[in-house]
Amino acid sequence: MSGHLPESVSKLKNRIILLFIVVFSLGYIFEADMSGLIDISLPKKSVNTVGTFYKVDRVVDGDTIKVIIGDVSESVRLIGINTPETVDPRRAVECFGKEASERMKEVANGKIVRLEYDDSQDYRDTYGRILAYVYLEDGQMLNRKMIAEGYAYEYTYLTPYAYQKEFRELQNLAQSGGKGLWASDSCNGEK
After folding, report:
1. Cβ neighbours around 15 below 10 Å, total
2. Number of H helices, E strands in the chain
3. CATH number belonging to the domain at 53-182, selected among 2.40.50.90, 3.60.15.10, 3.30.390.50, 2.40.50.140
4. Which of 9, 174, 183 is nearest to 95 (CA)?
5. What SS3 class is residue 19?
6. Of the candidates 47, 75, 77, 80, which lies 20 to 30 Å from 61 by C-alpha distance?
7. Burial, 22: exposed, middle or buried (Cβ in 10 Å; 0-12, 13-18, 19+)?
8. CA angle 120, 48, 114 (to 5 degrees)
9. Known catalytic residues?
10. 41, 63 in Cβ contact below 8 A?
11. Is 143 helix (H, G, I), strand (E, B) or coil?
12. With helix as H, strand as E and coil as C, how does 115-142 read?
């Protein structure tokens, strides 16, 4: 028996060696992907889905809210959606604009939200508003919710954004279902 390990110890040793080889190989593949030597389509950076929560100070209209960031009430324009106008002094209140604003007040006013930014979009728009996807504490994205319920329509400003395809599909569902501004007894899709 001298010089020989018991069979159970030998099997354990072989398993540890195999585990080491697997872990080392996975680490090598991951590092090679991250450095660009190979491409196995691992994400190169994480989407900022976890972060700081902010209190909604007030709702401006159906696609713009104000949140408290630090000591400042910042305007946040929801990426990928547009609602009929209610506050632009150069334009008349558009059909279903009041309803969209009221719905945003119902779901967001005084709530705690998280912001997700999109690398394809600027951080701020030409009016100085922060551009973001806005999530409620329960994980619902307000941008998505407003389109799905028919209070907003998909809006691409200049550059396609991360959820563009999904938002367009949600708009098509709202239209075909006659929801909100797509209802025949409201605006029927007209502003």
Report:
1. 10
2. 4, 7
3. 2.40.50.90
4. 183
5. helix
6. 47
7. exposed
8. 105
9. 77, 85, 129
10. no
11. helix
12. EECCCCCCCECCCCCEEEEEEECCCCEH
- Residue pLDDT tens, the chain, 191 long: 556 667 777 788 888 888 878 777 776 776 666 666 676 655 444 444 457 899 999 999 999 999 999 899 999 999 999 999 887 788 888 888 899 999 999 999 999 999 999 999 999 999 999 999 999 999 999 999 999 999 999 999 999 999 999 999 999 999 999 999 999 888 766 65
Structure tokens at 31: 């590092």
In the block, tokens 């941008």 appear at: 143
Tokens in use for 42? Answer: 């691992």
